[in-house]
Backbone:
């Protein structure tokens, strides 16, 4: 995090080398985050590109990230992903249909097959819940890391994660639980 | 209760992500199994087994677009806060004991050297000054300093004689310029009329209120202090016989 702060100070001075380093260091994780949330790699690439262009624009306008570079990048990525999702007309298929022909939900092949639809179900969650799910399960971040990025306490992230999983679980048919 | 459950949920998710089967996890916390099961099942579905990679070419294009924008960023002008911070940082560096001592020595040496320079320059400029001039006091102070630091009696007498010659020369210059000035010199009384004495070739008027010390007679050496008038008359103020 100290390295992040040093990088932040350098980019505030419009240090081109530092700005190149920001792209090299954070592009992939921002791309994976957006990809997890929007589900489409092409769109994710475009939006990830926009996140970094937004950083340059913010510097140009004299409004650079103040405390956390990664927090700022994820916040922009979150907003862009949320805006994109809002624009999409989506329908959430019933998970009963998805799991009906699955012999077991622990079958990894089947999980991979139904994953896109699971992600559609994610869209029913609040933006904040989607954000925490993407950080915890998409990015594989720890509670502490997610808390830092979201500028919340670890306890708040635990509660948010709980509510998000509970909301998602409500979409699951009872027989699947028994199956698992 | 909720906090406890949320902590168990998080530990269970960590175990799930480490590959522990759900049933095994639930068996560890049977009292929470019913509540945990659907949540862990949801958590299991959320892991992305095949994250989509971005093609390197696409990433390179996005990087190039970004760097093109970066290249157009103007240089950052330091803000008032930045300048203040810079001053503060310098001040911090200068307030260590070593730096303070170094600064004091530097300042002292600089002041002493400057004063010496000023004294030397003024001393040089004062060499040709006459009584009544702005720099004359410096000329006399320089002479007195020279006398003070001369410990050999012979050399001191020689210096005094030289300086007295200067006084006589100064009076001649003042007379030439018809100037009014307070003067002093040492000389021999050549003649003594009632109120008009000739001392060392200069005619000296002795007014009634003049202070005459030591009952000087013709041929005596006296220290004379008086005022040179515009009519080229030297009016004595004090005449003191030198023993």
Residues:
């Amino acid at each position: 995090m100290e390295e992040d702060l040093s990088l932040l100070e350098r980019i505030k001075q419009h240090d081109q080398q530092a700005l190149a380093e920001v792209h090299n260091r954070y592009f992939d994780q921002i791309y994976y985050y957006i990809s997890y949330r929007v589900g489409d790699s092409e769109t994710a690439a475009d939006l990830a590109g926009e996140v970094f262009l937004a950083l340059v624009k913010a510097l140009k306008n004299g409004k650079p990230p103040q405390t956390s570079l990664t927090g700022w990048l994820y916040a922009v990525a979150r907003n862009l992903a949320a805006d994109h999702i809002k624009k999409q007309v989506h329908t959430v298929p019933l998970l009963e249909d998805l799991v009906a022909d699955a012999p077991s939900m622990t079958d990894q092949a089947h999980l991979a097959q139904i994953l896109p639809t699971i992600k559609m179900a994610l869209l029913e969650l609040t933006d904040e819940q989607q954000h925490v799910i993407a950080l915890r399960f998409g990015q594989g971040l720890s509670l502490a890391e997610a808390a830092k990025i979201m500028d919340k306490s670890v306890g708040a992230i635990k509660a948010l994660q709980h509510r998000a999983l509970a909301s998602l679980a409500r979409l699951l048919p009872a027989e699947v639980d028994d199956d698992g | 209760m909720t906090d406890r459950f949320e902590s168990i949920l998080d530990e269970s998710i960590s175990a799930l992500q480490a590959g522990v089967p759900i049933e095994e996890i639930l068996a560890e916390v049977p009292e929470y199994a019913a509540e945990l099961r659907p949540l862990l099942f949801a958590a299991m579905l959320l892991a992305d087994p095949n994250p989509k990679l971005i093609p390197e070419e696409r990433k390179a294009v996005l990087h190039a677009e970004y760097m093109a924008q970066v290249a157009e960023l103007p240089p950052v002008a330091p803000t008032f806060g930045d300048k203040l911070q810079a001053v503060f940082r310098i001040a911090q560096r200068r307030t260590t004991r070593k730096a303070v001592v170094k600064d004091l020595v530097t300042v002292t040496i600089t002041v002493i050297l400057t004063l010496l320079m000023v004294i030397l320059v003024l001393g040089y400029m004062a060499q040709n000054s006459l009584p009544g001039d702005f720099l004359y006091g410096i000329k006399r102070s320089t002479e007195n300093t020279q006398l003070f630091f001369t410990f050999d009696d012979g050399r001191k007498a020689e210096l005094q004689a030289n300086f007295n010659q200067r006084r006589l020369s100064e009076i001649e210059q003042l007379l030439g310029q018809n100037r009014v000035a307070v003067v002093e010199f040492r000389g021999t009384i050549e003649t003594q009329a009632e109120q008009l004495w000739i001392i060392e070739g200069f005619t000296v008027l002795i007014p009634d209120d003049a202070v005459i010390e030591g009952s000087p007679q013709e041929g005596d050496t006296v220290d004379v202090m008086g005022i040179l008038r515009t009519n080229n008359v030297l009016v004595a103020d004090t005449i003191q016989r030198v023993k």
